[in-house]
């Protein structure tokens, strides 16, 4: 059985790991296509500044959803060996780079396990530009001219890069994609970041920890920082079942109203205050006031955010999928930017650092951005709330829009759409079958994992590692049931570049 994985980030690691753990009865040939030099970390977990923390607690960052403590146990192992003396294996939030090491090592051991069973994992250091169905197989074509036939292809393309909303790419001083965060920036020069979401916060923290002396400005339309993560409360199984039942059985047209009513009543039963909900979702409170207020609530059992997340987590996927398409579209248009600050919160340690910087004036957060233009003599003018601000260096952390045809993921999806192999989803990514993650289109054997499936599998789940790992297992089960091994006439003409980058 030949399996191609397009993209070599965390999703690819969960997939190879799930495949290796399934102990396949037949020989598998896995080919991973990834243009980046290092396989495993993908975009979020590269060799970043030490300061960049993972946004989720370490106990929810495993590549195995049935073993959520796998990362934690790995941390204890490496700390015990003395390999990384600075690592505190019990810290709730761990550095991103360390998670990158975990991913690389889990990939290496999964590849070794497949090899022990007679399989292979090869790496091709190139982007895939097209996938063509030929004689019941799928042929991948890369930017370097490599062609290879497969029985199954899983696209793990990650999130789109930040949108260039104001058309500034190529202008001196404009950093279109700030990851990795290790790029040197002049410490004495003011820095403006477009956006106030998690990526913008990552940039601010990296700069502050690096001793950046000039002001850092985060500027966005709503000026809302991510909420501060609370300790989740335990949900009574009866309450969880009531919600799950409603999500499963309410007719789609009434689902949104019913679920909102149930969530409201659960929040009220936990003592959540409507004023706190309104304040958390409203624009206008000062950034320092908001962060200080939320930092004071991280352990509060009656904080609505501490209740909402564990309530929604088990039902989020099915709820999203059962909502009518127009409700999903309207939700994304009207509520998503504000709700995303709650569903994707920042660690309290990050919030504490921001608060100190907001109070001593080294960090500012501005709302009401309406325009950004390049100045004739260099630099930029950012118009926010009717005032013009000058910026020399502008880092782009705007929310991602659909995949840009200029990036390799967008290019590939464009080719697939042209030939009817995939259909763009109005809520993000491409249409997939909810049960199997198979891409809905003319080719069988083509799958999407991670953000690319977020139109049908709500992104908060599609992008969370435990959610991705559960889906990876479904794909593995599916391809093992439906695999059609056999030598294709095309197999002999393949010229795969072996990268040998499955290092520990
Ligand atoms: C900046 C950022 C921070 C995040 N932080 C967190 C966090 O703290 N906690 C958390 O749980 N989740 C976080 N996430 C969510 C994240 O999406 C998942 O945790 C997970 O890393 C997704 O892995 P992936 O493999 O799907 O995507 P990625 O890691 O982005 O990997 C996708 C890979 O596909 C490759 N690729 C794209 N197109 C092609 C092509 N045509 N051919 C070949 N290769 C291609 C890219 O080069 C890339 O390496 C973050 C996401 C981002 C973008």
What does this structure look like?
The structure is a single chain. This protein has 504 residues and is of the alpha/beta class. It is built from 16 helices and 16 strands. The strands form four sheets. Strands 3-2-1-7-16 form a five-stranded parallel beta sheet. The chain has a five-stranded parallel beta sheet with strand order 8-15-9-10-11. It has a three-stranded antiparallel beta sheet with strand order 4-5-6. Helix 4 crosses helix 13 (348-360). The longest helix is centred in the N-terminal third of the chain and has 21 residues, at 96-116. The two termini are 26 Å apart. Mean pLDDT is 90; it is low at 484-504. The structure holds flavin-adenine dinucleotide. Residues 6-12, 33-36, 42-44, 54-56, 127-128, 156-159, 179, 199, 408-409, 412, 450-451, 463-465 line the site of flavin-adenine dinucleotide.
At a glance:
The protein is built from 16 helices and 16 strands. By secondary structure, the protein is α/β, with parallel strands linked by helices.
Strand residues, percent: 5-15%
Give the count of helical stretches: 16
- The helix-and-strand class reads alpha/beta
- CATH architecture of the largest domain, please? 3-Layer(bba) Sandwich
Top CATH class of the largest domain: Alpha Beta
Indicate the mean pLDDT. 90
Bound molecules: flavin-adenine dinucleotide
DSSP E strands, number: 16
């Amino acid at each position: 059985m030949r399996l191609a994985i397009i993209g070599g980030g965390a999703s690819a690691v969960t997939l190879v790991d799930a495949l290796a753990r399934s102990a396949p009865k037949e020989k598998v040939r896995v080919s991973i296509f990834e243009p980046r030099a290092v396989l495993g970390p993908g975009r979020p977990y590269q060799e970043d500044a030490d300061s960049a923390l993972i946004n989720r607690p370490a106990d929810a960052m495993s590549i195995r959803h049935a073993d959520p403590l796998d990362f934690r146990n790995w941390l204890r192992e490496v700390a015990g060996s003395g390999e990384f003396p600075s690592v505190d294996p019990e810290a709730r939030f761990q550095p991103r780079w360390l998670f990158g090491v975990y991913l690389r090592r889990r990939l290496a051991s999964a590849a070794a396990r497949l090899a022990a069973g007679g399989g292979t994992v090869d790496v091709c250091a190139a982007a895939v530009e097209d996938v063509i169905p030929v004689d019941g197989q799928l042929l991948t074509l890369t930017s370097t001219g490599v062609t290879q036939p497969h029985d199954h292809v899983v696209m793990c393309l990650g999130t789109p890069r930040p949108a260039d909303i104001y058309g500034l790419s190529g202008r001196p001083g404009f950093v279109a994609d700030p990851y990795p965060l290790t790029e040197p920036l002049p410490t004495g020069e003011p820095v403006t970041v477009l956006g106030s979401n998690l990526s913008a916060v990552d940039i601010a923290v990296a700069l502050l920890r690096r001793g950046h002396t000039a002001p850092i400005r985060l500027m966005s339309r709503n000026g809302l920082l991510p909420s501060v993560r609370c300790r989740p409360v335990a949900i009574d199984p009866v309450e969880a079942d009531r919600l799950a039942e409603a999500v499963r059985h309410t007719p789609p047209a009434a689902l949104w109203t019913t679920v909102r009513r149930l969530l409201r009543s659960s929040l009220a039963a936990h003592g959540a205050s409507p004023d706190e909900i309104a304040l958390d979702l409203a624009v206008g409170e000062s950034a320092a006031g908001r962060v200080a207020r939320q930092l004071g609530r991280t352990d509060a059992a009656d904080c609505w955010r501490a209740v909402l997340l564990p309530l929604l987590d088990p039902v989020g996927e099915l709820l999203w999928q059962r909502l009518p398409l127009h409700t999903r579209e309207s939700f994304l248009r009207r509520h998503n930017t504000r709700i995303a600050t709650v569903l994707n919160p920042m660690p309290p340690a990050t919030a504490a650092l921001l608060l100190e910087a907001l109070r001593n004036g080294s960090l500012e957060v501005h709302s009401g951005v309406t325009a950004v233009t390049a100045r004739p003599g260099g630099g930029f003018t950012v118009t926010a709330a009717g005032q013009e601000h000058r910026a020399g260096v502008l880092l782009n952390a705007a929310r991602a829009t659909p995949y840009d045809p200029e990036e390799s993921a967008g290019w590939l999806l464009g080719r697939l759409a042209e030939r009817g192999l995939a259909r763009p989803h109005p809520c993000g990514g491409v249409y997939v079958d909810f049960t199997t993650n198979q891409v809905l289109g003319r080719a069988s054997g083509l799958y999407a994992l991670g953000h690319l499936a977020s139109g049908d599998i709500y992104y908060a789940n599609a992008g969370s590692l435990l959610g991705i790992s559960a889906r990876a297992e479904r794909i593995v089960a599916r391809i093992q049931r439906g695999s059609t091994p056999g030598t294709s006439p095309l197999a002999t003409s393949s010229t795969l570049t072996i990268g040998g980058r499955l290092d520990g």
